[in-house]
Amino acid sequence: MPDLFISYSRRDGDFVRRLHGVLAERGRDVWVDWEDIPAAEPWRDELHAGLEESEALAFVITPDSLASDECAVELERAVEGGKRILPLVLREPDGEQVPEPLAARNWIFFREGVDDFDQSVARLEAAIDTDRDWVRDHTRLLARASEWERRGRDASLLLRGADLRSAEADLSGWREGKTPVPTPLQREYVAASRRAAGRRTATLGAAAGVALAISIVLGILALLARDDAIDRERQARSRALAAAALVRVDSDPERATRLALEAIALHATPEAEEALRRGVSNVQARDRWRPRGATDFDVAPDGRRLAAAAGGGRVLLRDVRTGRVRTLARHPGGAAVRFSADGDRAITSGLDRVVRVHDLRRGRPLTIRAGGALSAILSDDGRRVVGVQSDGTVRTWDARTGRPGPAVQAPPGWQGFNTSDDARRMVVTYESGAVRAFDPVAGRRLGRQRTDPGGQGSSEISGDGRLAVSSRPGGRAVVWQVATGKVVRTLDHRAAVASVEIDRDGSLVATGGTDNRVRLWDGSGAERHELRGHGDTVDQMVLSRNGRRLLTVGRDRSARIWFTGTGEQDLVVRGSGAEIEAVRMTPDGRHVVTRASDDEVRLLESSPGRALAVLRHRGRAQAAVLHPSRPFAASSGDDRIQIARSDSGETVGSDPASALTEAETRDLAFDPTGAKLAVADGAAVLVNDLRGHWRARDHGDWVNTVAWSPDGRRVISASDDGTARVLDAADASREAGPRLRHEARVVEARFAAGARRAVTLECARGAGDASCGESTVRLWDVASAEVLDDLDVHGGANDVDVSPDGRAVAVAGRDGVARLWRPRGGATATRLTHRYGVNAVRFTRDGRRLATASDDGTARVFDARSGRRLAELGGHIDPVLDVDVSPDGRFVLTASGDRTARLWDLRTQRVVGVLGGHDGRVLRARFSRRGDQVLTVPEFGAAAVYACDACGPLERVVERAERLVPRP
User: Fold this and answer.
1) CB atoms within 10 A of CB 40
2) Residue 14 pLDDT more than 50?
3) Which candidate in 263, 296, 560, 752 could, as Cys together with 238 as Cys, close a disulfide (CB 3.0–4.6 Å)?
């Protein structure tokens, strides 16, 4: 098994020979094509076999190798095979594009005259030796799986016994961030081996059953032995099902969850429990509906309602929360349906030449009679109905009175249409290949273009109505002005274009082709990203309203969500097994609805995690907090402070108090009883009694945090004005004690020992600097404002937490050390180390353990008494910014700069759930008091409350899984 396969340009042969010689002298087995290809052998097959058998690929980066097609093929095969990639820079790319698998990894430089050759070789050897056991196991398993694939999946080549158990342990023990990544072929090979082993086990079990049946006559001892054997067999079958579930948990979470439920029913083994928790966290389906003969469907913007035009011309409306279905309208012969932009109305139209605008709150429809069969939509402002009749006529009506507007005569044979957000511009595609633009309000024809004839063309209009994009023959698409038809950009997709999409202002265009790829283009026509992942033609695409997410549908029976800014794939929509015929996405991109060939309509979360509530503001949600005892959440933004139900997102209280200052809200906190809400708003502390009454106390500068005393009678605030103040909760304008004065700004303040003591974190830098160069943690006597003890933190601190008994203080240091400090204990603080800065610390509810979050991408859990490390949770690819522990102490929640929050099971130290799709870094993540909900606050966008389906007792997880994944 070679250590390394070297991919290089022939022009760099001298360097490769030198490198090969040095590595050979040091006992390394290196595969190079000049010495490892026997004479008269097909050289390309030998190259690929050598790459398959090697543990890693070293790619020598030069302008020549980056331009080489053969090197590109070798790199692509290495990525497909899950090989580790080691980029070696001999010469700078010099303008050549560096493929993402090379650009995303740390480079080892061998530049002549710049880098020391021996030191570079040492770094290369260290990279080769990284986690060699895993690499060797991965390579050996890949070789056996590939041999099995090449020989027609011969059952005699499947794994057995210890080999199978070892392979299952390797795959189930793999953690995110660990390379190389297991490949789909490896997982399929192991799953096939387990199924074969299961059949053998079943045969042996049957034989054992016969023997046990005969042995019953031997008496009570034989009966006990039989029961024990049956129990062990059930355990073995349960573990086999759990292993099969874990192999499928990422690719098909619904099937994995069903397998895990079967495993639990046999025996609740630890493996079955892990598979169930991971499976139920990955299930995307929020609702399933099978309206018979559905020809059209839509989803309300908030994701709470579904509508479908079913057989017999009936239009059905479904409440997602209750599952209740009612008939909204009837259009004999066939119908279409669309929701309004606010979700309060729906418009139905059909072959009966009737359009109805339904007020979903009042239940009063407006009926419009047209001159022909019609397909229609509502403008975003809800003022007009715009549609195209069967004879091609384009016209509008007033959505309040039904009064018709001007009509524009156009050719028949139209295939589809779409409009700008205000419905003042429309683009209609015809089966002849023509594309025509209209101003339906003024009744005018505008520009025109041509697309692929025969009904294969695709056109879309931008939200502002200025530009449109249309596919063209020859693998091209054109962006053109709606008003004039003038082409402003030509986009060369380099394969037949099957679908197009354009964002609101035309600054982003997406083209999907028969090459199974999606290309993203910027406003200048330059290609921004190439999205790979589909296995067949990409023939449908939908952009979210803000243009940040793109939904694509391929003929490979999958739909995928992508981040348009980075080109990264967020999620693959799977689970139905049938072909996806049509899709819809809510404007915020949080929900996706699919209609499959089996008539099933599925509402799915577009990102991992089952969102219960989204706390929206005019801008971003600056701060949010969960209620301590009731299903409510509070959030603050530029526009208001609101309280919403955390299980539905419905706003139950709203107050513009936070808008009284232009400064942002930095912290929110409910009192322990949930009767009051404290707000750190700009330079003021606000306290609300949840009945609309506010009391405020001004500081001289930014208020950074607010916290309550355990009895809820006092609030302590920390401010950049150098003070921490204790306020009377009954009248927040009155201070309940002397001020705790510091020499610099105070970034944290917490009560300890009831309300008799307080702990503060002082930052030595000025208010204009967000970081702390030097910090001091102080323990205060609240009544006298006397400092009882202090701890200097050189290099600065980011966070503090006080243990529930008030005897210990945890400090998150920017120097990579979390300190466990026992004030007035006479001992030095215990040092709990990370590789890089610590961002957050959190005690468990019983105070026995401490969780830490660090810039090194890990969270760690320590024994709060001895300082011994109990767990390291590594899987984030960016710094971990916040951490929390579930009330029962079993689960850890982490928030990261990689735009995800992750749920970890401390028993296995593995991820059981990922909450993704956030706009920007996730700054805060918290469990609810019961541990059944999770709150996340991202850097941009809205805060969200998720159901923690994997948390809690096993019985509750089983109940949730059976509701999410009903048996077929």
Assistant:
1) 6
2) yes
3) 263
pLDDT at 216 over 70: no
Same domain, yes or no: 94 and 184: no
Tens-digit pLDDT profile for residues 751-775:
998 889 999 999 886 444 556 778 9
Q: Is 380 helix (H, G, I), strand (E, B) or coil?
A: coil
Whether omega before 180 lies within 30 degrees of 0, making that bond cis, reads yes
Across 161-177, b (16+ Cβ under 10 Å) vs e yields eeebeebbebbbebeee
788 closest CA partner among 824, 741, 752, 750? 824
Confidence at residue 767, expressed as pLDDT on a 0 to 100 scale? 43
Residues 157 and 275 in one domain: yes
**Rounded (10°) CA dihedral 189, 193, 198, 203:** 140
**For the domain that residue 90 is a member of, what is the CATH number?**
3.40.50.10140
Cβ atoms < 10 Å from Cβ of 91: 19
Same-domain status, 215 and 100? no
CB 266 within 8 A of CB 237: yes
CATH of the domain at 693: 2.130.10.10
Cα-to-chain-centroid distance, residue 277: 17
Structural domain including 242 reads: 148-282
What is the Cα–Cα distance from 813 to 832, expressed in whole angstroms? 10
Instruction: Tell me, yes or no, whether 17 and 108 share the same domain.
Output: yes
Of the listed ranges 477-491, 597-611, 807-821, the least confidently predicted one is 597-611
Tell me the average pLDDT across 366-382: 83
Closest CA to 350 of 382, 301, 321, 387: 387
Report the C-alpha gap between 360 and 382 in whole angstroms: 13
More confident residue, 611 or 746: 746
780 and 670 in a single domain? The answer is: yes
CA–CA separation, 573 and 570 (whole Å): 10
Distance, in Å, from the CA atom of 103 to the CA atom of 204, rounded to the nearest integer, reads 52
DSSP one-letter string for 906-932:
TTTTEEEEEE---SS-EEEEEE-TTSS
Give yes or no: residues 276 and 166 share one domain: yes
Max CA pair span of the chain: 96
Give me the chain's average pLDDT, please: 87
Give the per-residue pLDDT at 133: 62
Distance CA 245, CA 238 (A): 10
Residue 757 lies in a domain: yes
Per-residue model confidence as pLDDT tens digits over 776-813:
999 999 999 999 999 999 889 999 999 999 999 999 99
Sheet containing strand 580-585, edge to edge, reads 285-289, 601-605, 591-596, 580-585
Query: Where a domain ends, among 130, 161, 195?
Result: 130
Q: For residue 221, which phi and psi values (nearest 5 degrees)?
A: -65, -40
The reply to whether 790 and 681 lie within a common domain is: yes
Q: Is residue 583 assigned to a domain? A: no
Q: At what angle do helices 117-129 and 13-25 cross, to 10 degrees?
A: 60
pTM of the model: 0.69
Lowest mean pLDDT among 55-64, 216-225, 945-954: 216-225
Helix (H, G, I), strand (E, B) or coil at 649: coil
In-domain check, residue 57: yes
**pLDDT confidence of residue 659:** 64
* Residue whose tokens read 């020499």: 743
> Interior CA angle at 441 toward 439 and 445, to 5°?
25
Report yes or no on 506 lying in a domain. no
Residue after which a domain boundary falls, among 130, 163, 181? 130
868 compared with 352, residue with greater pLDDT: 868
Q: Are 454 and 434 in contact (CB under 8 A)?
A: no
Quote the CA–CA distance of 307 and 319 in Å, as a whole number: 9
How many domains is the chain built from?
Answer: 3
SS (H, E, C) 104-153: CCCCEECCCCCCCHHHHHHHHHHHHHCCHHHHHHHHHHHHHHHHHHHCCC
What whole-number distance in Å separates Cα of residue 186 and Cα of residue 171?
Answer: 9
Give the span between the Cα atoms of 614 and 120, in whole angstroms. 50
